[in-house]
Amino acid sequence: MFELTSSPIDPAALRTRLAAPEAGALTVFEGRVRNHHQGRPVARLEYEAFDEMARLEGEAIVAESENIHAGATVLCVHRTGTLQIGEIAVWIGVASAHRQTGFAACRHVIEELKLRLPIWKKEHHPDGASEWVNCTVEAGSNAAGDDTHARQVALPEIGPGGQARLAAARVLIVGLGGLGCPAALYLAGSGIGHLTLVDGGKVERSNLARQILFTTAEIGGPKVVAAAARLRLHHPAGRISAHAGDLTAGNARTLVAGQDVVLDCSDNFATRFVLHDACLALGVPLVQAAVHRFEGTLDVFQRGAGGCLHCLWPGRPAAELDFAGNCDGAPVFGPAVGVLGVMQAAEAIKLVLGLEGLAPRQTRLVNLLDGTQLAIERPVRADCPVCARLDQLKAATEQLAASDAALLIDAADVSALGLSARVIFLTEPGDDLSAPGMARTVPAHDLARLRELAADGPLVLACRHGLRSAALARMLRAEGMGAVRALAGGNPPAGLQSFLR
Ligand SMILES: [Zn+2]
């Protein structure tokens, strides 16, 4: 349950409301008003909210937390209005059977409130001054003088421009196991602006040796929630989204769309193919790794580069081909997944920065037992149905570009078409037909007149932005009137005005 109140919070009364015989733990967080903030003394605070919006969002956060942390009952109360030093601004109580559920649910709620609740805080200082505090800046560390990334910005390959590209980038990580944990830490550490984590699993004791984002406190809880919380502590400036569920054929494209790079840190072939196909379809580069015992493979798949996952494994592989390694019970050397996960992060960062990475169509084999690395060329199968489809798509795009090259004509080249060539300016309703150069005009919707003119010799269509004219010229050419062109760039330049008259 979530509540807003303008009266002082009474913790004893709230604790009573959470009393339940089956709850062995009551976890309470009290956020209080302190007398200083960022080196300035504070006299009192003021909270202002869009009540209805804040209530809805607060209820959603609490419901989400109870849903993720099965067995937790959450009560959260947030103050509005004027608060004095020492008063409680936010109170969160979680009743649960066990303490771990309580801690995890409580932390989830406070972190999400900080990010999502539409509530604003104004600080009043003892000298009478006051200011609204930007909660996101407070949560992050983007303030001037922040030297979090100073050491990598000093690299000429990155610099302030590269750092800005990283801050604007979106990266999806599928799988928060032995590969995903170190990859996520290094990506967040590099300053990637928005990381989305996908994993439907829960933290198990046998994960802790390799999955370095988790501690014993999170055993039994959803991996993505624990991972997101940990990453926010490390790198508060970045945005972290968590999807607590598996990647499926149904949600893959939605999750991949809009990402700059995708990391496949999953541990099974089914996910691997679904993710690979979504990335290829949407043209998002995919960095894939897999580990078996002491050895790992690293691949970067990019649309158009050839040599896709289907070339590598013609036909869907049988379940027994699933050698990915860090799946349940399979023997694996911990440092091998660590090294490969970090290598995935490095490739992703280079892709964002536009730096040269792993050669296309190359599989990098890394052996942690004998310390060797080997690069092998990925096969390109001539009969690969997926690559063939992509080739067709590429060919169609190129064909369209080539036909557009013949379609468009620069103003300077119009006179070369000869004296019989006519330039027609397409008008839209509301155009001022008395303006200079408007003599030879035809309304854009008058297709009959345009067809008539097109049948009569070389014709150049012009319009304000060059879009309508190109579309109409393309249509007339498709109807067999090959002498129709469109003026590149739209609105005819001054030099052509006389020609139009
Ligand atoms: Zn292929």
Helix fraction?
A: 25-40%
- Average pLDDT figure: 84
Quaternary form? single chain
Strand order of the largest sheet: 13-12-11-14-15-16-17-18
What is the correct CATH architecture of the largest domain?
A: 3-Layer(aba) Sandwich
Number of E-type strands: 23
How many whole angstroms does the radius of gyration measure?
30 Å
Can you identify the CATH superfamily of the largest domain? NAD(P)-binding Rossmann-like Domain
Write down the CATH class of the largest domain.
Answer: Alpha Beta
Indicate the overall shape.
globular
Cofactors, ions, other ligands: zinc ion
Beta-strand residue percentage: 15-25%
Largest sheet entry: 8 strands, mixed
Low-pLDDT residue spans: 135-143, 493-501
Question: Helices and strands: which structural class?
Answer: alpha/beta
Quick recap:
This protein has 501 residues and is of the alpha/beta class. It is 36% helix and 23% strand.
Index terms:
alpha/beta, Oxidized Rhodanese, domain 1, 3 domains, eight-stranded mixed β-sheet, five-stranded parallel β-sheet, 16 helices, disordered C terminus
